[in-house]
Design brief:
The protein is an alpha/beta fold. 44% of the residues lie in helices and 13% in strands. The strands form 3 sheets. It has a 6-stranded parallel sheet, with helices on both faces. A 6-stranded parallel sheet has the order 11-10-9-12-13-14. A two-stranded parallel sheet has the order 7-8. Strand 10, helix 14 and strand 11 form a beta-alpha-beta unit. The longest helix is centred in the middle third of the chain and has 32 residues.
Length: 443
């Protein structure tokens, strides 16, 4: 079976590589010539555990190919996946120009039946636009070639994407014909042999499923952050509350950890797009608008704690940030809380020193050298007035606190991920602040 993946970003590269891993002939296409040349050399544009080794293995086996020429790959291709970006427009709606551009190029160059599958996260109704774009190009050519359109949203977690693809908890596929269903069933058979289900549905429902899933998870995060802030005010301990409600099987333990807000490529963009879709259809998603507002406010919570501790005078102060990426096991800094915190610290006249195991180069690309980058987490602490825990990387969980205290000018830790034990921090003489607990009452 031969397939083509258009877009070698996070979704496209993981998708193409994992299909190649089970023996499918995969061509990955991108307009970025430098990225394609690097991929051919084994240089991976993103950090994802296990991906680099898998890419190199499948290139060596001749199952995974990289090119900038989509037209050259279409002969003999049965399925084309569109995994290009859908960035938010200024009004929050998803920009479909790249998705429709791929559809038009397929329509201009296809000679036999093709199943066009949208892998990107797109609003309900996009499949119809994709179908129309392909058909318009076929009409211009004066040819009558059969094709189908399908939706196959991704549910990959950054930092665990390879495992998520190879061992999915579900595969959602929206189709319009029995032929398309049979093709997608055959394509995903290697991933369903261990009982992982393929859920077939109509295309609009598949498109909506992705937004609904991400918005539900975002809702849990913002809800818990709202509860955490209230806990701190009334004297409750959000860590105890989380355990209490997480044991309810209807709620569950996942995505109810308080923190400094969600970020990344999915939740912020998808929540905005779903809100915009509702607005365009004359309906206001009040809950999701509140979710988004809570999340934006939450990104400032840690800064507010720092500002209060230093009596509103941060000018000349030095702060050590542990972590920059929006979560561990990725270098992704899209909508990362670190960006908001850094901006506010710098605006207040402070100096920022930061360490992240993999996201330093991405941070330099985004904000340049407005902050200082260090070779490890301890170097960041030298002469710093406080440490801010931003991303809960495993290597930050059990530091040498004697060294931490010795290096800091002020024994103050602001834990945005509730990584450390309050009693232990207080016992070691730290001024310790976290999310959802008034730690001043523990001294």
């Amino acid at each position: 079976m031969k397939i083509t993946i258009v877009g070698t970003g996070y979704v496209g590269l993981v998708t193409g590589t994992c299909f190649a891993e089970v023996g499918i002939d995969v061509s990955c296409i991108d307009i970025d010539e430098k990225k394609i040349e690097n991929l051919k050399k084994g240089i991976i544009p993103i950090y994802e555990p296990g991906l680099e080794e898998m890419v190199n293995r499948n290139v060596e086996k001749g199952r995974l190919h990289f090119s900038t020429n989509l037209a050259s790959t279409l002969d003999g291709t049965e399925v084309v996946f569109s995994a290009v970006g859908t960035p938010p427009d200024e009004d929050g709606s998803a920009d479909l120009s790249y998705v429709l551009g791929v559809a038009r190029e397929v329509g201009r160059n296809m000679n036999d039946y093709i199943l066009m599958v949208t892998k990107s996260t797109v609003p309900v109704g996009t499949a119809t636009k994709v179908r129309n774009a392909i058909q318009e190009e076929l009409d211009k050519r004066g040819v009558n070639i059969e094709f189908d359109v399908a939706s196959n949203p991704e549910f990959l977690k950054e930092g665990a994407a390879v495992d998520d693809f190879l061992k999915p908890d579900r595969i959602v596929v929206g189709v319009e014909s029995r032929k398309a269903e049979n093709i997608m069933g055959r394509l995903y058979k290697p991933f369903t042999l261990n009982g992982h289900p393929v859920i077939f549905m109509d295309v609009p429902s598949a498109e909506m499923t992705k937004y609904a899933a991400n918005s539900m998870l975002a809702t849990k995060i913002s809800f818990m952050n709202d509860i955490a802030n209230l806990c701190e005010i009334v004297g409750a301990d959000v860590n105890m509350v989380r355990k209490g409600i997480g044991s309810d099987s209807r709620i569950g333990k996942k995505f109810i950890y308080p923190g400094i807000g969600y970020g990344g490529s999915c939740f912020p963009k998808d929540v905005k797009a779903l809100i915009k879709t509702a607005d365009q259809n004359g309906y206001s998603l009040l809950v999701m608008k509140a979710v988004e507002e809570v999340n934006e406010l939450q990104k400032s919570v840690l800064f507010n704690k720092v500002n209060k501790y230093f009596n509103g005078d941060l000018k000349g102060k030095v702060f050590a940030l542990w972590g920059l990426s929006f979560k561990p096991q990725t270098d992704d800094m899209r909508e990362a809380p670190a960006l908001v915190i850094i901006e506010k610290l710098l605006a207040a006249g402070a100096t920022v020193k930061a360490y992240d195991p993999v996201a330093i180069e991405e941070s330099k690309r985004r904000i340049g050298d407005v902050i200082e980058y260090t070779k490890d987490q301890y170097e960041a602490l030298i002469d710093a007035d406080a440490m801010l825990m931003i991303t809960e990387w495993p290597e930050f969980r059990f530091p040498n606190f004697n060294v931490v205290k010795k290096l800091l000018k002020t024994p103050a830790i602001f834990d945005g991920r509730n990584v450390y034990d309050i009693e232990e921090m207080v016992a070691q003489g730290f001024d310790y602040f976290c999310i959802g607990v008034d730690t001043t009452k523990r001294k």
